[in-house]
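Re: Re: token formats

Sure, here are both.
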Amino acid sequence: MIKSKQFIFGAAAAALLSATPAFAQGSLEGLLAEVQAARASEQQTFQQRAAEFNGAPADQQAKMLSEAQSRREGLAAESDKLSAQFSANELVINEADKKLRDKAASLGLQEVFGLARQVAGDSATILQQSLISTQFRAAEGESNRDAFLRDFAAAQRAPTHGDLEKVWLELYGEMTQSGAVAKYTTKVVQPGGEPKDAEVIRIGPFTAMSEGKYLNYLPELKAFSVYPRQPPAEFMATGAAFSAATSGYPEAVVDGSRGVLMSLYVERPTWLYRIEHGEKVNYVILLVGLISALCFLFQLAFLIVTRMRVGAQLKDLGKPSENNPLGRVLLAFTGDAKNIEQDADVAELRIAEAVFREVPKLERYQAMLRLAVAAGPLLGLIGTVLGMIMTFQSITESGSSDPKLMAEGIGAAMIATVLGIGIAIPLLFANALLTSLSKGITQVIEEQSAGMLAESIERTRRG
């Protein structure tokens, strides 16, 4: 009776275990149906075997019971034998492991293995950030270089000869390729986001170019991407010449920080970007500078032509011409030679009037330049104040003094100051140049007119 209950309980447990997948896949009703069906099947099997056992003769029942007990005793003996063998094997394994540890300690292998794991862990990060990984990709089913080194560094078991050799090969390959220039085909992510197979020129682990454009390495994707904004023209010209070179030692752009400096250089805002993202006062400063520069160029050309004409007039004072200031002054000094001594004061005033008439043309736009020189720094100061207002406003809105939030306002403040001083200094020298030229021409006119008056008076007295 006890054996029958144990059999029924075992059948129910087997039915429950066999119904577990159904429970995972179906509902509770499905589980109940499966359990009931399994129980009914086991019950039927039990009744069938019980009927066969009860229907058999007494001697056959004793024989069947004896066979079952013999089989049970045989299985128990086999189990005891396997258990004893398992215990003996454990003792052998522990003894062998102890001998291995003692041997490793005597040979110093633990320190060697620890050093190898440390080197592998330190080198894994370097290989992950190295753009050389785009050229030497892992075969299908194998781990990448950096993943293998991380697994090796984290492993608890003693490394094999093959593992140590592979670590050495990876490190040696990285060192060798760090001093090589290679050309190969790999995937390059375009500015639009689409990947494309392109030919890449790699300069060690420092710089990579494709189709004349500089590339950025993405360690997460193990791929290159084209910088959305390329470096200045001189960098692009150097890169194009290096890509077209087939021999010799051409110049190249090498980023010793492995892409960090290039990224910062590319992301650096241009002057046009700074001006556009600044305040409106930047445009006012540029407008004042442009107008003053045009006035300077026009007056400079006028003074140069005038100085050339005055120089030509000095060679022929007897034939004054109206195309230069000196000639017009000479023409203004015309009078009766007989009465020149009595009318000397009138003649002097007439000459002075003619000189004064020419001076405004010679000193034209100088006041405008002096005004621009004084107004440029003041306009830059206004831009600086507006930029600081933007900075304080960003601090107030965010509630923190994050440098990234303050950078835009400070940049706007500084660019306005630079623009104001930038137009003031060149215009200061331009105004000094115009002043020097105009004073030189005016001095020549005054000297010649005074000398002409004195000569005329002296000639009249002698006559």
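Second one below.
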Amino acid sequence: MDNFGFIIIRHVNSEKTNKYWNHSVKCLRTFYPEKKIVIIDDNSNPYFLKREFNYYNILVVKSEFKGRGEFLPYYYYLKNKYFKNAIIIHDSVFFHKRVNFEVFLGKKVLPLWFFYPDKENINNTLRISNGLKNSFGIIQKLNLNDSLISLPHLKWYGCFGSQTFINHDFLVSLEQKYSISNLINSVKCRSDRCSLERILGCLFFTENQSILNNKSIFGDIMKYQTWGYNFDKYEGDLKKRKVPKAVVKVWTGR
């Protein structure tokens, strides 16, 4: 079994969005030619869904749960140990350099990007958290005021886009303690998926406090690259060979 592989969450609803996953896979294959890639498809429109290349060592899973988005990789990885560790990314993330994920082997979890805790849509976040087993401590943390969050044992950070490097055994331990698979019944739309970023972040930092000093692999998403950087801008920068980062995230409203 591979030490690590990639899980891409995909949703195609136009010719442009069909370019995303194709380009993401092409980039990964440039730097990780032998690594397995699992694509979790969230209700793509088959009219627009087309392969641009003949890919190999790729598994496509068509989800039966519409609109669950970023939670789907965790749900299916929990039930299928595709590899020992997963790098979970959006289809709108493009690698332009090989990241040495081998150095993170042995880690339980690391967000790819983090953001500072906030109270955005807190009522919805608390509603979804109620679906977890043993949720009391997590709900308390999510609902704390800023002055208390600064206390070391109460600290947590958001997990941007719910994108992580995560160990399968650690994910199983979260399921055993919190029944996180229950979230498949609660995360159904974009605002729910925004709440998920905060819930997963709180879970990760609670159950793996060793990452409080590092927080993530690529740093604070608010400082990483221009917020709202879109695919059109990216394509223009790509043609000029001036992409802003070694790992690029583009924003897209879907």
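The longest strand covers residues 4-10. DSSP finds nine helices and ten strands in the chain.
- S.
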